[in-house]
Amino acid sequence: MNFKINIPKDVKLVLDTLINNGYEAYIVGGCVRDSVLGKSPKDWDITTKAKPDEVIELFKKVILTGIKHGTVTVMIGKEGYEVTTYRNDGEYEDNRHPKQVEFVSNLKEDLARRDFSINAMAYNEQDGLVDYFNGVEDLKSKIIKTVGEPKKRFCEDALRMLRAIRFSAQLDFDISNDTLLSIRTLKDNIKNISKERIREEFNKMLVSNTKSIEVLKETGLLEYIIPYINKTYDFEQNNPYHIYNLYEHTLLSTKLIENKLYLKLTMLLHDLGKLKTKTSDENNISHFYGHAKESVLMAEKALKDLKYDNDTINKVTTLIKYHDSTLKTKLSVKRMLNKIGEDLLRDLIKVQRADVLAQNPIYEKDRILNLVNVENKLNDIIEQSECVNLKDLEINGQDLINIGFNKGKEIGQILNYLLDLVIETPNLNNKEILLKIAKNKLMS
User: Fold this and answer.
1) pLDDT tens-digit readout, 35-44
2) What are 47's strand-pairing partners?
3) Rounded distance between C-alpha atoms, residue 65 and residue 146, angstroms
4) Rounded to 5 degrees, what angle do the CA atoms 87, 88, 91 make?
5) Which of 47, 53, 370, 383 has the maximal Cβ count within 10 Å?
6) Which GO-annotated molecular functions does the record name (predicted)?
């Protein structure tokens, strides 16, 4: 294939230094794949016949990032470039790491150990594109295939099963049948992969393409990532507001929400509590009283298990907690604003919109119009700088102490009492008026 990649000058410097000193060297993997697709690569990895100690000799600053696997990082200015010696991975001991690696002198052997054909291409300006495993053809066909036998590749490293689905999501490619079948067969091996690694692949899938959730379901991997979700697959909701089963509703609402990770996670987990709260009335209509509270507990457990950071967990669980709350009046908007703040309230409106759009369309118009009105009310409250929290109250703890209140819990209780009054009646947010109300409270 007559194909030219514009290699950045620092990367070219590393390649040229290796080649001019008698060592084969190529850019390899994702940067080649992205270049063939016409995308700008984020990372530039280099593979070479030179051994790590020979690479170290040639460059001023080298960091020993993964020397036991033949990888060092060459620093050019402030940028680092991974340079890995051609290698053959030995036997894998834990479905993830080779016990040992063996350096080889042949580029084809090095490329043969890689995961997918689209990631097993190499390039330099002298030889052009090196594509022993039909990576270009698979890019044209929009298909994910392993290099060699899929079962062997996935037994070596079980994370590759998730990577296959992630690449499929990011590139909007299909996965070849034998690759998909092997994932189904070996899905249990995912237990050997760290939660952090699973989480990182899952995050990339969620923000790329919701179809990845379907592929995870189809292969049986989804229930390893989100416990209980397999129980939603055939869970009928039997309620006039719903035309989809619980899984279908979850998937659609996840697809419809804005493409931010914590919002995607919110929709994926927002209704899990329905599995534990389903009741039926005399007309065989199902109800799910208290499901938001139960969903919070289940979501928190799932997110902690995957080692999500506290900020993400807090955002997701707060949005789930209030996803079913009724917002209509200006007062209800102000009370919610007091509880969760402006940013999360704007997110909550997005969550409720996605939830409604994934339900029965008969009720959609009025409920979406209501959310538009809620957003307008929120904008008015913000523009008018109406008081919804203690910091905007025209009176503080010291003012209360000055008129005779005791320090401690009582101050907080009175301030919250006054804030409640101001939220209901904004005109009361005046220092003299509030002091008068507080004095009356003190004397009563």
Assistant:
1) 999 999 999 9
2) 26, 84
3) 27
4) 140
5) 47
6) metal ion binding; nucleotide binding; nucleotidyltransferase activity; tRNA binding
Structure tokens at 145: 């295939």
Please tell me the predicted confidence (pLDDT) of residue 442. Answer: 81
| Cβ pair 206, 250 in contact under 8 A | no
Q: How many CA atoms lie within 13 A of 92 on its CB side?
A: 17
* Strand spans (E) along 226-308: 279-280, 286-287
**Listed residue (146, 91, 86, 136) closest to 115, CA to CA:** 146
Helix and strand counts by DSSP (H, E) for the chain: 21, 13
- Whether pTM > 0.85 for this model: the answer is yes
Query: For 143-225, CATH number?
Result: 1.10.110.30
Distance between CA 95 and CA 153 in Å, rounded?
Answer: 10
Least confident segment among 66-70, 90-94, 173-177:
90-94
Sheet holding 25-28, edge to edge: 62-66, 71-76, 79-85, 45-48, 25-28, 122-124, 128-130
CATH number of 9-141: 3.30.460.10
Residue keyed to tokens 């194909």: 3
Residues 223, 224, 230: CA angle, nearest 5 degrees = 10
pLDDT tens, residue by residue, 369-393: 999 999 999 999 999 999 999 999 9
Q: Kindly tell me the burial class for residue 345, based on how many C-beta atoms sit within 10 Å of its own C-beta (0-12, 13-18, 19 or more).
A: buried
Spatial separation of the C-alpha atoms in residues 68 and 255, rounded to whole Å:
42
SS3 87: strand
In degrees, to the nearest 5, what angle opens at C-alpha 89 toward C-alphas 84 and 93? 130
102-117 tens-digit pLDDT: 899 899 999 999 999 9
**∠ CA 27-31-32, rounded to 5°:** 70
> DSSP letters along 48-83, please?
ESS-HHHHHHH-S-EEEEEGGGTEEEEEETTEEEEE
* Cβ atoms within 10 Å of 166's Cβ, excluding its own: 23
Going by C-alpha positions, the residue among 203, 230, 206, 231 that lies closest to residue 219 is 230
Backbone angles phi, psi at 87, to 5 degrees: -150, 165
Q: Is the torsion defined by CA of 349, 355, 357, 360 positive or negative?
A: negative
What does the pLDDT read at residue 90?
58
